[in-house]
Amino acid sequence: MTPPQAPGQRDLFPGALEMMVLQSLRRQPMHGYALVQHIRQRSNELLQVEEGSLYPALQRLLKDRLVKAEWEISATNRRVRTYRITAAGNRHLDREVSRFERMLEGIHLVLSPAEAE
């Protein structure tokens, strides 16, 4: 059970979910439930993506043409919407990961113990 969050507190910074979705789709096309499971498993259960967050993120990615979707039949014989990353999505992901890595480097520098001056 997760502890209650303070009002307005977010688990992820803006854009993090979209980066994780794009990276997951870069590995292979997936439907929504598979994306939720993939992110949970790849994060060693540290991240729990809720449908209420995932599907709006997927809609934003579709609108921005960073992913495309097709209806397919799953292994359990159900209709599922499968998402694939586009060429524009790959370029966008590369830019966002680069920005994230620079931000993380800056945070690390600020949090590191100060060296003797």
UniProtKB/TrEMBL annotation:
Q: Name one Pfam family in it.
A: PadR
Q: Which domain of life does the protein's organism represent?
A: Bacteria
> For the Transcription regulator PadR N-terminal domain, which residue ranges apply?
21-94
InterPro entries per the UniProt record, alphabetical: Metal_resp_DNA-bind_regulator, Tscrpt_reg_PadR_acidobac-type, Tscrpt_reg_PadR_N, WH-like_DNA-bd_sf, WH_DNA-bd_sf
Show the NCBIfam families listed in the entry: padR_acidobact (TIGR03433)
- Tell me what this protein is called: PadR family transcriptional regulator
